[in-house]
Structure to design on (116 residues):
C-alpha cells in the first residue's frame, strides 16, 4: 500500500468529488472478477470511487486495505459506503500545463492622459 502526503490527498479528494462510483462490491466481497474490474478501472482512470454494500464499518475499512494491497493503490478517502483509491498511471504522465502569459496592459494614448 502506497502512502500519500496530506497535500496530495487533499488534491485527490478535490478531483474525486465529481466522480461517480465505477465498481460496486457486493455480498461476494472481493472476487477475482471484482479485483480485475478495479484494476482495469485504475489503469484507465488513476482515481476511482468504489461503492461497498453492507453496514459494517470495520469490514469496509478492512476491504479498503485489502483492495489497496492487492492492486498496489493508495487509499485516498473513505466516506460511508464509498471508497476512493488512487494508483499512479503506468504510462507517461501528461505534460504539466503551460502557464498563461501575463496579460498585457492597454496602451496609454494621449486621450487617456487628458482624462486624468
Amino acid at each position: 500500500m502506497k502512502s500519500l502526503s496530506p497535500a496530495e490527498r487533499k488534491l485527490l479528494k478535490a478531483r474525486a468529488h465529481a466522480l461517480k462510483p465505477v465498481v460496486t462490491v457486493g455480498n461476494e466481497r472481493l472476487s477475482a472478477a471484482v479485483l480485475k474490474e478495479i484494476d482495469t478501472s485504475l489503469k484507465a482512470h488513476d482515481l476511482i470511487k468504489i461503492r461497498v454494500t453492507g453496514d459494517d464499518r470495520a469490514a469496509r475499512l478492512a476491504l479498503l486495505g485489502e483492495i489497496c494491497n492487492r492492486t498496489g493503490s493508495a487509499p485516498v478517502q473513505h466516506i460511508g459506503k464509498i471508497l476512493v483509491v488512487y494508483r499512479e498511471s503506468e504510462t507517461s504522465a501528461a505534460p504539466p500545463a503551460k502557464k498563461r502569459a501575463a496579460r498585457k496592459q492597454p496602451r496609454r494614448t494621449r486621450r487617456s492622459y487628458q482624462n486624468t
About this structure: The first strand starts at residue 23 and ends at 25. The helical segments are 6-16, 32-45, 57-71, 110-115.
